[in-house]
Specification:
2 copies of one chain form a homodimer.
Chain A: H1 8-19, E1 25-34, E2 42-43, H2 47-56, H3 61-71, H4 75-83, E3 89-92, E4 98-99, E5 104-111, H5 112-117, H6 119-142, E6 147-150, H7 159-171, E7 176-177, H8 180-186, H9 196-201, H10 205-215, E8 221-223, H11 229-241, E9 250-253, H12 258-271, E10 278-282, H13 287-292, E11 300-303, H14 305-308, E12 317-325, E13 328-329, E14 344-348, E15 355-359, E16 369-370, E17 373-377, E18 380-381, H15 388-401, H16 404-407, E19 417-419, H17 421-442
Chain lengths: 443, 443
């Protein structure tokens, strides 16, 4: 990660601030302006990558040469950029927690140039990973009693995205991932069976199944739909007869009417005495498909592409807004994009209570928990990187807290977020003073 | 890039093939089964990353330890994987070319274990980058006479995705990118102005504009919508009066009714004698918005999120299918997913002619150009990596070739792809022999 992993305007502004000595503390707030269609909540994710990025921020000499030559930045600017590190403070909602529109996911307080420069990367990590964790959570809600595993690697937006998707899905309770690099990095179960090509590379399906059972007796899930699904199941039954142990036998359905094929396959397997054989289903699944399949005798779903790209909502309407500079609250008034000033805190109450959006300086409320926690100070993390399981535990707890109305997959009602009187007062008074200065002049 | 950047089942199958000496040549064909809604064509992209991946493929010792410990692969498997490199041949449609459903974007011929192992990564790169290049091409069609630049970095799916998006957009004719790391790597113009936070960090808008003009006289595009857009334009006019040279002056509109604001801003600028001042527009743009804005006096569009995630079609229904193994054509018959056997070639004719989908062994047709080219042999590239400009030239040429009916943004009619008699005959005869073997038994 390097200083050039940002938008050009961040570098221009950073250079300008540095030239002018505008290095007072600035607070930026990162939040979703609104939820995508059919979303009743978001699942916070992406913080770990943000902290890695901030801790590693610097310009190397090749990058500085580029900025000098291509962007005509003078030597003084380059010298200042060469020294730049992230020395600020970060408050954030821990990964796995449920949040709503308008609630800060992350707030940075740092000398203005540093806080500005990191906008692009922080927005990117939080937006993408929160969108995917939220999509994965919806899949969980659609199939609460069936194991889900991540099969998305082949159609995410790059392999770095495959890594982040495996992690975000795990935060939302997925039981494993097919993407081996991520399984290794995050200590997740790696899962996977065989592809159609395996079956096709043998003289016939039976030979392929026998070979696979011989090679991987501990995990013999047979892909049965290469030629004819039910015929494939019958071949599995034959092959299983010769196995010393059928405890690990399963089948995977990957095309056709999955619900009907699961029923008919289950019947064939049960009649053959393979009552313990698992049925795995995959192929174009998302939360809507999972709801439709919820009554089918399926033991595990491989959920791929549509989860991994959050197909119906591949981005969130997030913003990283300056809310305070050098001790003064600030806000913008662009049409439809008004942002509230000041560093903030979210106070969460019991189930059924609205969240309170407060200034960070306001005191803690009784029976309410502050969502944002300090995670970095003086550019240093306040704790070691946490395992994915910690974020997953938070998600499970928040999912239990979330009201049914917000959990609904269609037309949900998000939990209300109410600004405190102090925040409302500050917003209004700043709005009036800015309107007096700018609007009157233009009308 | 490493051997673990793949799905677990690829590693299982690879290990199984190696154990069994199933190392005969296999050909896999990568293609889109169908086009997403409202797509009349695809723009091929992702090949450069595929070749890098193939050239770098290997398992390091830490990865082999992981596979041994976690997946219980025995020593012999690990030794075989340690030696594995990609030694095969790749034919591909060069980046920037226009393709249609069913046409191979890429074909790999290699010993079966190698060709299998790389499936996940090749599908990922080609699917994602082709989807985004196609989306960017649609933006070009929507605004053929206005410069477009990529502003997507903050909301793509990771920073690696930001890099790939900048490149894919450039292939489709975007004039620059805000993402500096990609601008540097690919030699693209880096573009960018100022953010709202810059304006807010100064005592007032006028002070911010003056400071910016002083610091970047060569590129003074002022963001005018922080408080009140037209008031912002008037402030630009005032500030510009004091500039020694107004040739580089411009404004950026980022919210509100962009068409109306552009008209009113243009009038104000012209009245003030700033007839050369450029108007840049950004904020939630995609091809539909660009069509709506096509009559507005806007000189450049910053196109961000919706292009960078290909918002209405964030993935393609791609497949990487075994079509030949050890000299024998193969195919699968899964419901709705029939794949045609054999290594292929696409023969393209004059405008208005359908494409011919042929076996690669068929002879070249008169007045037709073969789309797939050999790009790697014996695991080595057949040429140096090419500049983005080469792909962009191909795109411009193919765009001129593409019939109006396929260019339409809504309900387009893709160019027809007709299989040759030889391909049809091979497909039918294989289908019959497989059906005889598998379907009869199950009915």
């Amino acid at each position: 990660m390097t200083g050039l992993c940002t938008d050009l305007y961040e570098i221009r502004m950073t250079a300008s601030y540095l030239r002018r000595g505008m290095t007072g503390p600035a607070t930026f707030s990162l939040f979703a302006r609104k939820l995508p269609p059919n979303r009743g909540f978001l699942v916070a994710a992406g913080l770990a990558d943000c902290l890695d990025f901030l801790a590693g921020l610097r310009f190397n000499s090749g990058e500085l040469d580029y900025l000098g030559a291509q962007l005509h930045l003078p030597e003084d600017d380059l010298a200042a950029l060469a020294k730049l590190r992230f020395t600020g403070e970060v408050w954030a909602v821990p990964e796995g927690r449920v949040v709503f529109a308008g609630e800060p996911l992350l707030e940075v307080t740092a000398p203005l140039p540093e806080a500005q420069l990191v906008e692009t990367a922080l927005l990117n990590f939080v937006t993408f990973q929160t969108a995917v964790a939220t999509k994965a959570a919806r899949c969980r809600l659609a199939a609460p009693h069936t194991a889900l595993v991540d099969f998305a690697a082949r159609r995410t937006h790059g392999l770095e995205a495959s890594r982040a998707v495996a992690r975000a899905a795990a935060i939302a309770g997925f039981a494993g991932t097919s993407y081996v690099a991520a399984a290794r990095e995050f200590g997740l179960p790696a899962v996977g069976t065989m592809a159609h090509s395996y079956v096709e590379a043998f003289p016939d399906e039976r030979a392929a199944f026998r070979a696979f059972a011989e090679d991987f007796p501990e995990a013999v899930v047979f892909l049965v739909d290469t030629y004819d699904t039910l015929q494939g199941v019958r071949t599995v039954i034959e092959v299983a007869r010769d196995l010393p142990d059928t405890a690990a036998v399963g089948i995977r359905l990957d095309s056709g009417d999955l619900a009907e094929l699961a029923v008919r396959s289950r019947r064939l397997l049960d009649e053959a005495g393979l009552t313990g054989a698992r049925i795995v289903a995959s192929g174009g699944l998302d939360e809507q498909q999972l709801v439709r399949l919820s009554k089918a005798p399926i033991d595990m779903f491989g959920v791929g592409t549509r989860m991994g790209v959050s197909a119906d909502a591949p981005y969130l309407d997030t913003a990283y807004k300056l809310v305070e500079y050098d001790g003064h609250p600030v806000m913008k008034m662009s049409a439809g994009k008004l942002s509230a000033p000041g560093a903030k805190q979210v106070h969460r109450g019991d189930p059924g209570q609205p969240d309170l959006l407060a200034l960070r300086t306001e005191t803690r409320r009784e029976r309410r928990e502050p969502l944002l926690q300090p995670v970095m100070r003086g550019g240093a993390r306040l704790g070691p990187p946490e395992p994915v399981s910690a974020a997953r535990r938070r998600f499970e707890r928040d999912l239990a807290w979330l009201p049914e109305s917000a959990r609904r997959l269609v037309d949900p009602a998000p939990v209300e977020v109410i600004p405190t009187p102090l925040l409302t007062q500050l917003t209004e008074s700043l709005r009036h003073s800015l309107a007096a200065r700018y609007h009157h002049a233009s009308r």
